[in-house]
Amino acid sequence: AVKGAMMITPVSGDTRAWFTQLFGRGFDYKLRTQPGGVDVNLFPKCLDTSMIERRYKLKGKNVVMFAGRLTPQKGTQYLIRAARKIKGEVFIVGDGSERKKLEKLARELKLKNIHFLGYFGRRHTRELKEFYYRSDVFVAPSVWEEPLGLVILEAMVCETPVVVTRKGGIPLAVKDKVNGLFVRARNSDDIAEKVNYLLDNPQMSVKMGKMARQIVLEKFNWTNIARRFERIYIEMAPPTNGNNKK
User: Fold this and answer.
1) What residue ranges in 31-101 does DSSP mark as E strands?
2) If we measure between CA atoms, which residue out of 97, 52, 89, 94 comes closest to residue 72?
3) Engineered SS bond to 82: which of 57, 101, 163, 191, CB 3.0-4.6 Å?
4) What is the pLDDT of residues 8-42, one digit of tens each?
5) Can you tell me the distance from the alpha carbon of 43 to that of 125, in angstroms, rounded to the nearest whole number?
């Protein structure tokens, strides 16, 4: 497949480096980095969050959110350990092989501010969106080399600042102290400190959230990305016979 491809489009510089490590530099001339993105038409600037406000009794509370597969690579356990010091309610959206282990950890630590909501499928799309918009901070404590991180982009387009590890392609979207904060991988104390910083500094949090949405609109908008792919297809298309022009 690699030999037959006319062009290869890794989603980030880190994924490109991984590809080169795997296949060598002989295919470098075929590589062109093209990130994934978000359909910004599905994410207006503002969204009514009254449904989850009532359902989860969120009035007056700080909300911290994680969304993703509950696997060891996502580092969710470090967010749970950080919850002991976090000044807010921590909602875990997602399911996976680690869920029972993580729920047990939360019980052992006697945490009252951790809430496991399970996987939000298509029937709960609205609820997931409301959590993105309502959250004060989105946390992605990945311990592996994330290709990019779609949930991070979705949180950003909802003007939610992010606390993330500097793993894989994440730095392509997140700029430290601009639209979010970086934390060291596997470091619960660092997570708690950075999350609380944003919760204690709402003006800074709002500023970072606005920058987060702006970066997605400019760099990770599917419409703009689609145009770049269209130019690639046109560039790579074989020349057509003049008699076949349409």
Assistant:
1) 63-67, 89-93
2) 97
3) 191
4) 999 988 899 999 999 999 999 999 999 999 999 99
5) 12
**What residues contact 187, with CB distance under 8 A and at least 6 apart?**
78
20 neighbors 28 (Cβ within 8 angstroms): yes
- Give the residue from 153, 141, 155, 159 showing the smallest Cα distance to 202: 159
Q: How many residues does the chain have?
A: 246
Read off the pLDDT of residues 64-103 as tens digits, 9 standing for 90 and up: 999 999 999 999 999 999 999 999 999 999 999 999 999 9
State residue 173 phi and psi, 5-degree precision.
-105, -30
Q: Do the Cβ atoms of 224 and 1 come closer than 8 Å?
A: no
Nearest to 137 by CA among 99, 102, 94, 89: 89
| pTM, to two decimals | 0.91
Half-sphere exposure of 159 (CA within 13 A, CB side): 14
Q: Can you read off the two tokens belonging to residue 84? A: 């002991």
Angle, vertex CA 53, rays to CA 52 and CA 55, nearest 5: 55
Q: What are phi and psi of 147, to 5 degrees?
A: -55, -45
115 near 92, Cβ under 8 Å?
yes
Per DSSP, what are the bridge partners of residue 207? none
Question: Which SS3 state, helix, strand or coil, does residue 140 take?
Answer: strand
